[in-house]
Amino acid sequence: MKVIWISHGSTLEGAERCLADAVKILANKEIEIQIILPSEGKLASILKNMGLSIHILPQPRWINEFKDTSSLFKRFYQYLKSIIKLTYLLRRLQGDIIITNTIVIPCGAIASKLLGITHIWYIHEFLEEDHGWSFEFGRKFSLKYIEWFSEIVIFNSQAVYERFTEDISANKARLIYHSVEMPEGYKACDIPNLEKGIFNIALVGRKAPGKGQKEAIEAIAILFKRNYNIHLSLVGGDFGGYTETLQELAQNLEVSEKVDFISFVDDPLSYMMAADVVLMCSKSEAFGRVTIEAMKLGKAVIGANSGSTPELIKDGWNGLLYQSGCPSSLAEKIDLLYNDKSLREQLGVNAYSWANQKFNSENYASDLLNVFNEALSQE
Question: Are 145 and 75 in contact (CB under 8 A)?
Fold first, then answer.
């Protein structure tokens, strides 16, 4: 079986990291894989190191991620040009299955249909809720387009599945939780600014309004007034200058010394490993890779009761849930684990066992291969 994977990005964001994990697993199952990326980058380097063939072909996005002032005629010309180039490339690669690895690029679906090749759409995003994007041609039409031009549509969580099956037929929809692969022989690096004896909390994710760093800082301020010896590490890149907003908030709440702002790092796992508790405060997390990584490190996780997070955290058993958007609720959950080490450790033990049993490469490979075979049988 030959599978061609089309990505909208070349970085190591959620969908791209899922792609890297998936192709590594499938390559071990002797599936021939080709990858189409929009540019060179970290993802391309990782895939090349796996010995995979990479093809560079930029593609237009059909979302309002950026304000595009191009005329409608020019936009259609961009789509047409991309479809022609992509069709030519796909004809040369001669795949059995083509996978569009994101909701934001539409051209692979039409190219697949023109060539009569099985097409699978793999959706990793809520779109509006998690990124603030909307479809250029409207939600209703765009989702019907996804349904029309795909044999199967894969969703990465139950929450995302339910969000889109309002418009995409459940007959074509499939839920697959992807694996979360931890580095082999992982050894945490030392974190220079973390003092021993302090209750350390980590929140990993890009600094953006929807990721919940604001309520994490506000929760720390509540606990600081109780004289708790705590420290919060906010790890991740910046979105639109939001870091400055968060720094001003910490200063106004007089907790600047209790909060570290760490930009993007290659090894965020070290910050989670050094933490007593890991937070997942995103209001609309489509999957929650960081949550699973923290669980696989044996950490207790406190997560917002929204998005896909309640699918991953069974409150009181492998983590704790708090009321999303409510800093006082988050503070009370942190307070509970601050004062109950045995509960914290038991949550971590349960989380480690559950995450490794559910989110592993064998399960993921089996689920993907079942969907591939099902899609091919529909020809």
Answer: no
Distance CA 68, CA 242 (A): 23
The phi-psi region of residue 299 (left if phi > 0; otherwise alpha if psi is between -120 and 50; otherwise beta) is beta
Q: Print the domain residue range for 213.
A: 199-358
At 220, list the tokens: 């720390």
Q: Are residues 242 and 323 in the same domain?
A: yes
b/e map 56-83, b = 16+ CB within 10 Å: ebebbbbbeeeeeeeeeeeeeebbeebb
Cα–Cα separations (whole angstroms), residue 136 to 58, 106, 247: 18, 11, 34
Task: Write out pLDDT tens, residues 222-255.
Answer: 999 999 999 999 999 888 899 999 999 999 999 9
81, containing H or E segment:
helix 72-93
Torsion (CA) 236, 105, 90, 169 in degrees, nearest 10:
110
pLDDT at residue 7 above 80?
A: yes
Same domain for 368 and 348: no
Q: Are 333 and 220 part of one and the same domain?
A: yes
pTM for this model (two decimals): 0.91
Sequence letter at residue 87: T
Q: Which tokens hold the place of 24?
A: 């590594």
Q: Report how far residue 117's alpha carbon sits from residue 291's, in angstroms, rounded to the nearest whole number.
A: 36
Residues 6 and 120 grouped into a single domain = yes
122 with 156, same domain? yes
Radius of gyration of the chain (CA): 22
Q: How many domains does the chain have?
A: 2
